[in-house]
Amino acid sequence: MTEAALLQTRKEKFRDPDWTASGERRAQVRLQALRMLWINTGSLCNIECRNCYIESSPENDRLAYVNRGEVSAFLDEIEREALPTREIGFTGGEPFMNPDILAMLGDALARGHFALVLTNAMQPMQRPRIKSGLLGLREAHGARLVIRVSLDHYGKALHEEERGPDTYDKTVEGIDWLCVSPKAGTNIVQRRGDELKLVYPQTGAGPERYAGQDFRNFFLQPMDNPDRAANTAAATRYCLEHPQWRLSLQTHKLIGIR
Questions:
Q1: At what angle do helices 156-163 and 168-178 cross, to 10 degrees?
Q2: Backbone dihedral angles phi then psi of residue 148, each to the nearest 5 degrees
Q3: Distances 153 to 159, 171, 192 between C-alpha atoms, Å
Q4: What distances in angstroms separate CA 74 from CA 63, 95, 108, one per listed residue?
Q5: What φ, ψ does residue 110 adopt, rounded to 5°?
Q6: In CATH, which of 3.30.1950.10, 3.65.10.10, 3.20.20.70, 3.40.50.1220 is domain 182-258?
Q7: What is the mean pLDDT of the segment spanning 205-224?
Q8: E runs forming strands in the chain
């Protein structure tokens, strides 16, 4: 079948929103409440994943960038209809390639919604303008802004099998910027935020070194090594003695998933 014939068949098959081509009524699910609105920011992406659901790539611009005005119209409708929408999600493509992404996030947050961004955390997110904008939004709106990073595997080989060469290290760099987890012998650049997680114990990186920094939450995570049981006991004891800190456990390791 030619492409033109295929397109014509699709048009005929789906031309009526209520009835199928065979005359049967289409299945429907009645909308009860719009609790989360997903917005696709556009199909362009800085990488080309093997199994991307919309075949995003640096060249696929079939789905044009949504703009600030269009998103504002959706937010206006939510407000006008008094819909119980709690969260606005932004996906793509790579949302941080959209030139209006910071403004759209700001508008959603300013209206009291939570905002979620799905990202690969690579170069588009790591540009200085984007980083500065995200820090400003975080300062103004706190934990209502959530960044969710796509990582196909904790290991480089399998991650890059899906996402292509030279993608793993850049993503990890982005995760390191988003999540503060100090290591002994390193300089900490980000000194304020929502969460600081410290692996414990570490020689030269005791909790007291970071306790005075401007974070909302402080977590101790037991060092995962042959002394894990002793490290867990020590971390638990430290948290009980210093209530500023809370215990963080990697439950997948506790049940044998690695």
A1: 110
A2: -110, 120
A3: 5, 11, 28
A4: 18, 17, 10
A5: -65, -25
A6: 3.20.20.70
A7: 91
A8: 36-40, 87-91, 114-119, 145-149, 192-200, 214-222, 245-247
∠ CA 93-153-255, nearest 5°, is: 130
pLDDT over threshold 90, residue 75: yes
Sign (positive or negative) of CA dihedral 148, 153, 156, 157: negative
**What does the buried/exposed string (b/e) look like for 239-251 if buried means 16 or more CB atoms within 10 Å of the residue's CB?**
beeeeebeebeee
The secondary structure of 166-179 as a DSSP string is T-HHHHHHHHHHHS
pLDDT average, residue stretch 2-23: 63
- Full-model pTM: 0.70
Among 99, 119, 115, which Cα is nearest to 107's? 115
**Domain definitions of the chain by residue range:** 32-178, 182-258
- The CATH label, of 2.60.40.180, 3.20.20.70, 3.30.1360.70, 2.170.130.30, for the domain at 32-178 is 3.20.20.70
